[in-house]
Prior knowledge:
Elements: H1 7-15, H2 17-24, E1 32-33, H3 34-41, H4 45-57, E2 61-66, E3 69-74, H5 77-87, H6 102-109, E4 111-113, E5 116-118, H7 119-131, E6 135-138, E7 142-145, H8 147-155, E8 172-175, E9 182-185, H9 186-198, E10 202-204, E11 211-213, H10 215-225
Antiparallel strand pairs: 1-3, 2-3, 4-5, 6-7, 8-9, 10-11
Protein name: ArsR family transcriptional regulator
InterPro entries: ArsR-like_HTH, HTH_ArsR_DNA-bd_dom, HTH_Metal-responsive_Reg, WH-like_DNA-bd_sf, WH_DNA-bd_sf
Organism: Acidiphilium iwatense
Amino acid sequence: MVLWPNIAAIAALIADPARATMLAALIDGKALPAGELAYAGGVTAQTASSHLARMLDGGLLACETEGRHRYYRLAGPLVAEALESLAAISAIDTIRRKPISREMERLRTARRCYDHLAGRLGVAVAQSLQTKGFIVPAQAKKFEITPGGVSWFGGIGIDVLTLKPTRHGLARQCLDCTERTHHLAGPLGVQMLTRLCATNWLRRSTDSRAILITPKGMTMFRSELGIDASAL
């Protein structure tokens, strides 16, 4: 008797056209809500919910909760590799995406997520802080601040050592609702937005959650974090 993983069960999950399309919509590593995946798969919300539950049970997907919302992503790189291998021997198809409203497009560049920075800029800042080694992803959706990070934040006027952590820690990974990747939240994220507004890198909109990037901010984001804010 030869022992072999039950690839038939996994193949059956992927074989359904709607489920395959939903998985393909997640191939870029982002996490998407059920409604967007239902749209991509061309199925109703109820049908999508059933598909998602089966793929969760089958180990193809992972689910992340952010507030009242649930976001789904591929369970890991092995799933992505399997999909890419199958895609290499199949015909090219188009994934349906929901059109973005004008107001949402305006907010995608930079906005407040409760009390911290979000949108393309928020994600770019979090990614740059990680690339430079100032913050490091940790368990329980937290970021750890490195000694280099303490020094950098101190340079822009934030004394990390005096900040009081919440039960979620000092710095938290918050899943961005438009970019589907994490930005920086928690007391450090709150203080960073406050400080960047106080030093005129950013300016809060008076009539919405939008955050405006000032000319000074354009210069400082490039010099301090290597971010071309004009391209966002």
